[in-house]
Amino acid sequence: MVAWNAQTMGMDIEVIDHQHQRLIQIINELEWAIQEKPFDREKLKEVLGSMFDYAYYHFQTEEFYLDKFNYPGIVSHKNEHRYFIERYQMLIKLFNTDDDYLEIAKDAQEFLENWLVSHICGTDQGYAALFKEHGM
Ligand SMILES: [Fe+2]
Ligand SMILES: [Fe+2]
Question: What's the pLDDT score for residue 20?
Fold first, then answer.
């Protein structure tokens, strides 16, 4: 389980903190769905899909403000988002086609816990000061 950590993850920017909290909540929903017995493939599929949709929506929100405020690190930040989308899309594709779907779901959970959490604690923190300068 991933717990929200206001010190390492929080930015005091309401719209962003709220979205990051929701992303962490979905990671935990995935973990619960993986542990459920008997395994429910449809439930796993639903949670994996909701993570994709919400992450996509969240990246759009961030990129909108990164553009608007002319963030200097915008290109590499967008590239990190793009990397996530591609890698995660591949995992969903594997999940849908592989018989070993539970293992794929676990890989996805590990990827989310590593990539998404470190992106929130690392790369995302870089724009916090700029967003606040603009009144967010
Ligand atoms: Fe983010
Ligand atoms: Fe980001």
Answer: 98
Segments making up each domain of the chain, as ranges? 14-133
State mean pLDDT over 30-43.
94
**Cα–Cα distance, 105 to 108 (Å, whole number):** 5
Distance 38 CA to ligand 2 centre (A): 35
CA of 109 to the centre of ligand 2 (A): 18
**Cα 102 to ligand 1 centre (Å):** 27
- The mean pLDDT of 64-87, rounded to a whole number, is 98
> Which CATH code is given to the segment(s) 14-133?
1.20.120.50
Largest CA distance in the chain: 50
CA-to-CA distance for 49 and 51, rounded, in angstroms? 5
Rounded to an integer, the average pLDDT of 56-85 is 98
CA of 69 to the centre of ligand 1 (A): 16
pTM: 0.97
